[in-house]
């Protein structure tokens, strides 16, 4: 049964491989499902040995990180934010997850949160060009968004 730690670990590893295969073939919805199932299995590791816990933590982070990547491809940004936040609770300095979090917030047009996440990424990985360029994308998208908003308002009141 999947209620003992060793079985959970091996099943979660299989879910990761399944997710990777789905992701590679472009089936992002199936990939997200597989990654989430794997992450869910590792949520409760009651009775696990220290070795098993040492393995399950990073595996769960990887599953959540991959799940976020699949959600970004599906444009399901709120779900991507959630997966990133779960992963960052387990590993706060994860560069890829922090980048995906900023991308997901940007996808939701939550510019302040996107900027905060990208700045945090620069704190973890100083001088990282990916975060620097993401910050400028965030600024220009925010400017375009505000301009569009202003145009919509002026139409309403004219």
TrEMBL record:
InterPro entries with a match to the protein in the record: FKBP4/5/8-like, TPR-like_helical_dom_sf, TPR_rpt
Keywords carried by this UniProt record: Isomerase, Rotamase
UniProt GO molecular function: peptidyl-prolyl cis-trans isomerase activity
EC primary class: isomerase
Reactions catalysed according to its record: [protein]-peptidylproline (omega=180) = [protein]-peptidylproline (omega=0)
Top-rank lineage group of the source organism: Eukaryota
Keyword match rRNA processing: no
A UniProt-annotated Pfam family: TPR_19
Gene3D superfamilies: Tetratricopeptide repeat domain
EC number: 5.2.1.8
Keyword Acyltransferase: no
SUPFAM superfamilies: TPR-like
Chain residue ranges for the region called Disordered: 1-27
Protein name (database record): peptidylprolyl isomerase
Organism: Lunasporangiospora selenospora
């Amino acid at each position: 049964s999947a209620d003992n730690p060793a079985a959970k670990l091996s099943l979660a590893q299989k879910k990761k491989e399944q997710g990777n295969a789905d992701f590679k073939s472009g089936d992002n919805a199936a990939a997200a499902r597989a990654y989430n199932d794997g992450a869910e299995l590792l949520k409760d590791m009651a009775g696990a040995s220290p070795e098993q816990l040492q393995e399950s933590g990073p595996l769960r982070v990887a599953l959540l990180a991959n799940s976020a990547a699949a959600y970004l491809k599906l444009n399901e940004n709120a779900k991507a934010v959630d997966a990133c936040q779960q992963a960052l609770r387990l590993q706060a300095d994860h560069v890829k997850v922090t980048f995906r979090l900023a991308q997901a917030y940007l996808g939701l047009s939550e510019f302040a949160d996107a900027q905060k996440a990208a700045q945090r990424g620069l704190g973890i990985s100083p001088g990282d060009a990916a975060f620097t360029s993401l910050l400028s994308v965030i600024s220009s998208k925010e400017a375009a968004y505000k301009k569009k908003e202003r145009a919509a308002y002026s139409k309403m009141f004219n």
